[in-house]
What we know:
Strand content: under 5%
Order of helices and strands: HHHHHH
Radius of gyration: 30 Å
Number of strands: 0
Amino acid sequence: MSDFESISVIKTPKSYKSPPGFELSTGSKKSDTAAQIKKQDPKAISDLKAKKAWEIAMGPAKSIPMNLFMSYMTGNSLQIIPIMMAFNLFMSPLKAIFTETNKNFKQLITPENSNDILVAKAIFVLCQLACMSVGVWKLNTMGLIPRHRSDWLAWEEVVQVKEWSSIF
């Protein structure tokens, strides 16, 4: 017989004082907390879903500063990295607008917050369009957006820039 078998186990946990913040739970208390979770106010749930919708709607706006910085750092030359970045700045927002908008907001719609969700969807689309505007700026700095008559008409002379002024 080992030494461990001779040790008696105390079977009455009430003989010890519980540590602060600890309550010995019984089966009935667990069912009480489950009932409390199920009895949450529908208005509170609707408000939480509206807050989550606004978090989703403002998500793309958080990536705009990083996209601007990366676009600036890749330069204006016609090389593979800046062209791929400009392509990605167009395709990712378009994909998000057409495929993810309804998918992201579908589970959050309730009869009480349907107007708030609709506004959040519109803000989501506007933020995606703002991300696409970074791509337009990138294409403009690379010289790929036609802005002069000579870009469209073969008989017009190319505009010669005499001075350059830089913002940065």
